[in-house]
Structure formats: C-alpha cells, structure tokens
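ok so for the tutorial part 2 we go from a plain amino acid sequence to predicted structure tokens. step 1 is just haveing the sequence, like this:
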Amino acid sequence: MKSPYTFIFAGRSGCGKGTQAKLLQDYLKKADPDAHQFSFSTGDAFRAFFANDTYSSNIAREITAKGELQPLFLTISMWASAFRDELKPDDHIFIDGYPRVEAEAIAVESALTFFKRQNPIIIDFQVSRESSKLRMEKRGRADDTLENMETRLDWYERDVMPAIEYMKNQQGHIYWSVDGERSIESIHEDIISRLEKLS
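step 2 — the prediction. this is what the tokens look like for a chain of 199 residues:
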C-alpha cells in the first residue's frame, strides 16, 4: 500500500477548506475503498462542545460569540485526544482548522513526528479579506457578526499565518498555495492534479 497522506488545510474563514477536504476524502475513498481516513475539524469539534451545558463549554461559547481565539490548551486537548484514541497506522489524515498559533503548530509537529508521518501536505487557500467576509455573511452563522468577522480576520493574519509559515518551513513538508477565489470544481481539480504529480 502507498504511504498514507497527511493533509493540513489552511485559509481564512469561509475560504472553502472544509468543502475541499470533504471532496478530497471522497476522491481518495473512491480511488482506494479499503483505505482508512482520520479527519478532525476543530470547528466541528467546538460546535459539538458548545451543545453541552458545562462550566468550560459555557466559557468557550462566550469566547466564540465574541469572535475571539479559543485558548491553546482547549484546542490542543480536542485534536490531541482524537489523535491519541482514534488514529490508525494506515489512515490518511485530514487536519482542518488548526494550528491557529505558532505554539500549536509546534504541538502539531510533535504529533506528526510521534506518529512518524512524513511529507505532510499543507494546502493553503488564498482568498482576499473581502471575499472571506462575503462568504461568512452568506453562511449566516449566529456568531458571524460584522465585528466578530473583523476580529476573526485580524487574528488570522496576526496568529494563523505565522503558524502556517512555521509549518511550511519544516523539512520535508510540501506546501501548496491554492487560489481559493475560483469555483469549487476548479479548485478540486487543481488539488487532484497536484496530488497525481506526487504519485
């Protein structure tokens, strides 16, 4: 069997990384029905977490309601426990929504080293700040207020971009800058074309 892939999806809110991750999962599943996949989205995990009525979930819900960044310990605890308990040796890995700060990028790197994952592929979707705002407005989430969107975009530029820069500069990492302003179909075809060139 070909060594499993490790994908890290990055980009401003609303850039379409979740959609493209799902399309890529479907493509790989069709190409090799026996291959297993490990997918973890911090956004999905936090939305499930917010459905609880606990001390910690109530505090975290207030943080997101303000458009602010969740504390590092909480984000890492979510994906790290999933890696620890659910990842299998031959799984393709799909990382969506993290790392969001450089310290978390270092933690992700430690996990990839621990699990002996070589040549991770960082897929960085490039969309403008204005496009990101328009897409967030269209999806209509309750926390996507104008103020929150601006806050989210600010911390993406301040914190997430340096985290991605840190990861792309690690030895053996593959970095793809992808024009996210195109159609869903065009972006997917671009990603598949790049993937086929690695084979």
